[in-house]
């Protein structure tokens, strides 16, 4: 039948977002990020995030409808992130979606935020189920086999930090600007990845679980040794440390991806999503691995890898087609494993 038009809302972390999606077409995708509000605190402050979401959601929705050139009455359903995430933000979104649904009589669909990320390669590239995806962001690191819009098998995940978190901490320890991923990547361009020895955590253990906290410890030790030996860090030291750190993250993610692919039969391709998927070296290494396995490689554009509401609208449409709508008893879930 005809593609339905969905309004999606996202407010589970520090981005307030609204989007209108029809089939695989993104009619609009508005993201209001809160980085500036949290900058002075060195991290996301939940109370500030919740208040900002509550204030910004209706503006984002209005803008998304305007840019999509549709009226609220043209929308077929309303999808909203119902978890996991910071409870205040998730609640803001869920209450807004319920209000819109009650006022318009349009169906309400609660979407898992991680499902949104995991289905993005279908939105961007139309990849068929089942496929393997590596989610790598500031908050997540996991391998999922995606069998359907609400059907996932987790093959492994980090037992401590997420890689993005490790990039951010590395930048902080070396005096580079936040977010750490891009600044570490840039500094590493002129670095020698072999000068400093970094561990390759958990490679000695079978399976697809990952660990990144040891890399931070290794970095701290090498940094402090340089400082005590020579009184400070030279630009070349920083670049070499960044290159060594980045190579360790890359090697671990590639080797664990190799294992995850080996354990997955019948998949149509390998996809990657999340902010860390922006890393050029990592992307290239994962693409090579995918090619070696004869699989299509999908890495959505960065704006759709990071938090957005188009992925929520799309995941909502896929879930709606399979399972129908939720009702007004939909609740916000701070924890919601796939
Ligand atoms: O998916 P995302 O925007 O937010 C969530 O975690 O939800 O991911 C942000 C993370 C940050 O930790 C940032 O440092 C990292 O992605 N990142 C990168 C790069 N660009 C962003 N990490 C490595 N290389 C990059 N080029
Ligand atoms: Zn996310």
From TrEMBL:
* Required cofactor(s): Fe(2+)
Per UniProt, residues of the Gcp-like domain are 26-314
Q: Where does Fe cation bind?
A: 113, 117, 307
Recorded hits in InterPro entries, A to Z, give: ATPase_NBD, Gcp-like_dom, KAE1/TsaD, TsaD
Origin: domain of life: Bacteria
Q: Name one GO cellular component term.
A: cytoplasm
Q: Which GO terms describe its molecular function?
A: iron ion binding; tRNA N(6)-L-threonylcarbamoyladenine synthase activity
The name this protein goes by in its record: tRNA N6-adenosine threonylcarbamoyltransferase
